[in-house]
Amino acid sequence: MVEKHKFLVYRNSGNGKSHYDKFEFPVSKGMSILDALFYIQDYFDSTLAFRYACRGAICGSCGMTIDKVPLLACRTQVSTVKIAKKPINLPEFKFGDHPDWDPDTEILVEPLPNMTVLKDLVVDMKPFWKFYREIEPFFERELNDIAPESTQSPSQMKKIERLVYCILCGLCWACPVSNKNPKYLGPAQLAKAERFISDSRISNEKQRSILSRVLKDDAVPACEKFFVCNRICPKGVMPGTAIKDIRDKNISER
User: 142 and 112 share a domain?
Assistant: First the structure.
């Protein structure tokens, strides 16, 4: 007998009004939340909007809130939602009144927190990318076509390896600071800043340029050390630790 699961999905047409729709359907073995959303779209409501791309937990497009936890829909199995260990001390994410949600039997699917909803599970990522560009996440070097163009020792790479894994999914914007301060640069952005600041191939001039941005009041100093970003990052980047590292470096260099 095929097991059925119940879903409660946030809906918003973008006009400021929201509601929740309920769905129940058979779930196949290995079905992810993203697969479930495709099923809803195919068999119940073709207007359901959500983002996806790689389906392999690499692009970060399918970030959303599942049972009040920001997760990647493509790597979250329907069968494990109710039994998976949840991060502790997460803030309360409210998107609207969800009538009669039974957390024991219904999977609640909502958009990412602290972002404007464009439609259903699709949020406006423009502020995210605006702040990302501000930390200058790129190299500025003269092109050298003689191999190798640049070298880096294993120990130098090890310093930034964890930070390189960031896929810019936006889950870390669940941070309470992002909720109350729309000008806060954001955990992902500051983690990327530390990735470039600590890269042995970056020039001192570029390092100073990035530091001048992330040491402003709406960046590193604004972090209140909730470390929600560390607990929900799907790639173990630990943005909160990266922010602490930038702060510690600045203090030691004064």
Answer: no
**Residue where a domain terminates, one of 123, 149, 178:** 123
Residues 134 and 234 in one domain: yes
Number of structural domains, the chain? 2
Question: SS3 letters for the chain?
Answer: CCCEEEEEEEEECCCCCEEEEEEEEECCCCCEHHHHHHHHHHHCCCCCCCCCCCCCCCCCCCEEEECCEEEEHHHCEHHHCCCCCCCCCCCCCCCCCCCCCCCCCEEEEECCCCCCEEECCEECCHHHHHHHHHCCCCCCCCCCCCCCCCCCCHHHHHHHHHHHCCCCCCHHHHCHHHHHCCCCCCHHHHHHHHHHHCCCCCCHHHHHHHHHHHCCCCCHHHCCCCCHHHHHCCCCCCHHHHHHHHHHHHHHHC
Please state whether the predicted TM-score (pTM) of the whole model is above 0.85.
yes
Domain that holds residue 216: 126-253
* CATH number, domain containing residue 18: 3.10.20.30
The answer to whether residues 100 and 146 belong to one domain is: no
pLDDT in 10s for each residue of the chain, 254 residues: 568 999 999 999 877 789 999 999 999 999 999 999 999 999 999 999 999 999 999 999 999 999 999 999 999 999 999 999 999 999 999 998 877 899 999 999 999 999 999 999 999 999 999 999 999 998 887 777 676 667 889 999 999 999 999 999 999 999 999 999 999 999 999 999 999 999 998 889 999 999 999 999 999 999 999 999 999 999 999 999 999 999 998 875 65
